[in-house]
Structures
1.
Amino acid sequence: MVDAALISKVKALSIAERLELISAAWDSLPADAAPVTEGEKKLLDARLADIEKNPADQSPWPEVKERLKRQLP
């Protein structure tokens, strides 16, 4: 269980800071920490196929992240 004081500190962060914290927490997990279901694997395969078929329609993660940050208050 997460400490209530920690949750309180997280809630005091700005939205941008919370998103950065989420990203850092996710990146800290080992690769096998979040099991992937067969349905999720199929979805990922379909998205990878779309990336290969339509590379110009894609945006790199850093660009997406910056666009999201600009939309935050």
Note: The chain has a mean pLDDT of 93.
2.
Amino acid sequence: MSYLKIKNLEKSFGNLKVLEGINLEVEEDEFICIVGPSGCGKTTLLRLIMNLEKPDKGEILIKEKSAEKSLSDLGFVFQEPALFPWRRVIENVEFPLEIKGIKKEKRREIAQRYIKIVGLEGFEKNYPFELSGGMRQRVALARVLAKNPEVLLMDEPFASVDAQTRNKLQEELAKLWQMTKKTIILVTHNVEEAVYLGDKIVVLSKRPAHIKKIYPNFLKRPRNRTSPEFVKLRREILDTIDKF
């Protein structure tokens, strides 16, 4: 049984039809990357799963329940970290645990664990403005992981950092996924990023978007970005996107 199912999903904004007939099944523990032409509706699809938008038609099921009834199982990492500037790193990571009513000592322990996992030990007392863009995104990731969601939705989380930092964060995310085995759905414009991270790469068409092709990715982890197999898969996906 698929962990997450998207059935005949459609979404319009006024007269602008964005998504049309989206059907997708995601297995538990899978890492799915979604790519496609700019403006085709990748972020809209994530927002629908997260229940930040309502579909016009179709349904989204998580463990056979509507996504609306499964919000506690979801975590969302945005393009921008959206941290609270008046809170220190440790306090930002603790925030979803405060909302749950977890006692201070326990939430501090949980937050510290995830700060260590994302490589920010020693920065617990820093404020967001004292951190680099990549470090702020790590704080945002630690905050979502502290909530312990079953499904992690990521909307171009590394788009605003430099190429070197982006590659490093991709490597850390791949290790983190292997450690936690979360189900992850990541939207990206970067096809190399999708090939490096994804078990499957879902290619959307131009708007109104439908799924043009799904590429399974059997490359061994950790993946070598310069290997002939990696380059070949990247080229195939780019060619598919360029046909639109």
Note: Residues 33-242 form a domain with the Rossmann fold fold (CATH 3.40.50.300).
3.
Amino acid sequence: MPSRVFRYLFSATVPMEEVESSLLLAVLGVECLHGETEVQLNAAHFLDPERRTCVVDADSEVGRNLNKLLAGFLRREFGQNQFTVRRIKAPIPSRTEKSQRAG
């Protein structure tokens, strides 16, 4: 089965604060469709401003809707040439894993 995890990579000209705002807006939109609990359980995502990346797990319907909204918002705000999005095989890192790697 193909991976349904997507990694967004942003050009150096894209303000990562604006990417974070777009991600939060996409999460809010998905909460309106599916409810806060469903989003918490089924819309895993991870934003890494230092690496200029965002990862979205689109394995569930909730995650797929988050991915669609995010891609649409980013394309509208920054243009399709300011970021790339690719399917990846790696899982989304948890906050604990990131803390362990940094420490």
Note: The CA atoms of residues 46 and 93 lie 7 Å apart.
4.
Amino acid sequence: MRALANVDQSAAEALCRRATARHVLAVELHYLHAAVLIGLGRFAEAARAAERVVYIDRTLAAGHLLLASIRLKQGDRVGARHAYRNARTLCAARPGDEIVPLGDGTSAGEMAEVAAAELRLLEAPAVATR
């Protein structure tokens, strides 16, 4: 499906939709569906797919990070902060060199730092513009 998403995102989305309907607890399929929906600019649907990811497996840090990025795209800074904190906390509880499931080879330490950096950006005071 990932290869199809690179060629035809609409077809990949339809395939993901059918696959997630058939395999409702397959976290990997919901994660992929959310990613495809992001590519299509369908952020509300992507958020619902990412919410299913973290509902199915609350310990999946990559799912929280994905949800955080979607929330940020939606302008939901509070929701993004919450999801980034969850990702950071989950990764900080793991050995730093442990590879995070669905993290495309990212270690827990690296993902914790990404989440922490995003939190710092979100929590920084707004810079006044003239």
Note: The longest helix spans residues 77-92.
